[in-house]
Amino acid sequence: MYNERQEKILSILNDKGELQISELKDVFPEVSTMTLRRDLTLLENDGMLIRTYGGAVNIKKLASIYGEEDEYTLRAAENVEEKMAIAEKAKKFLDDGRSIFLDAGSTMMYFSRLIPDDHYSILTSGINIAMELTKKEKITIYQTGGQLNHNSLSATGPTATSILDIINIDTAFIAASGFSLENGFTVSNFFECELKKAVIKKAKKVIMLVDSSKVNKVLAFTFGQLSDLNILISDDKLPDQIAQEAIKSGVKVL
Q1: Which of 17, 40, 127, 143 has the least C-beta neighbours within 10 A?
Q2: How far from 196 is each of 86, 157, 177, 182, 192, CA to CA, in Å?
């Protein structure tokens, strides 16, 4: 999957926990700094590390710094290939609407990196996603206000929901922490649940991005059912029963 140099970078990072570009230059003196930066960017996009100023840090190292309660960092390192595949599938639906809602979550972060620098108007509840989108000059970014959830990096609550009174959404890309046929799409946070429900009600088109690891996980609050969706995007491990039930509900499954 990676070339010999990139594999060596991962090996060093696994051993040391973190590294600097200057250290990599000592290991690869014949390779330009720009190429090494591109290597780190590629590995970050694949969920193998997190870039820092002048270098990179191993995700496990970062989790040990912030503690086991840093759920976002831990989730971002899970099912990376599936999340990236889902993001690639979702990309083709960007032209369906210029006014877009992007939910919070690690899958949405991968998706946000694939959005072209075009004249989109994007509302997001994910503070890290808003920061990622600032790299693209043509996109107009709106951030929901409200209470910050440290584990999901989402801003929710009454303030966040109230912005939907004045903003229109053509296409909403939604994420879920769990799904079952009996309980629908679920999350653990009440305010996140309320925001997702309001977005689903407001949007002209609703696209759910959920990897198969979320299937048969049930959390405290239900915000939607298959019948609320227009499109369900998952990976190739999605159980046939789920796909068939979605199709029965008039949902396109990818």
Answers
A1: 17
A2: 19, 11, 12, 19, 6
Report the distance separating Cα 40 and Cα 3, nearest Å: 13
Q: Which residue has the higher pLDDT, 143 or 77?
A: 143
- CATH number of the domain where residue 132 is located: 3.40.50.1360
Q: For residues 107 and 83, is the Cβ–Cβ distance under 8 A?
A: yes
Instruction: Tell me how far CA of residue 35 lies from CA of 29, 45, 135, in angstroms.
Output: 12, 15, 20
**Judgement on whether residues 221 and 175 belong to the same structural domain of the protein:** yes
* Domain housing 101: 76-253
Q: What's the pTM value of the predicted model, to 2 decimals?
A: 0.74
141-151, pLDDT tens digit by residue? 999 988 888 77
The type of residue at 86 is I
Are 162 and 228 in the same domain?
Answer: yes
Contact status, residue 101 vs residue 118, Cβ threshold 8 Å: no
Half-sphere exposure of 138 (CA within 13 A, CB side): 7
Do 27 and 97 have their domain in common? no
Q: What is the mean predicted confidence (pLDDT) over 118-127?
A: 93
CATH number (domain holding residue 25)? 1.10.10.10
Contact assessment for residue 126 and residue 151, using Cβ atoms and an 8 Å cutoff: no
| Predicted confidence band of residue 251 (pLDDT cuts 50, 70, 90) | very high
Determine contact, residues 40/31, Cβ cutoff 8 Å. no
Q: What is the pLDDT of residues 189-212, one digit of tens each?
A: 899 999 999 999 999 999 999 999
162 & 212 share domain: yes
Q: Taking the CB of residue 7, how many other CB atoms lie within 10 A of it?
A: 11
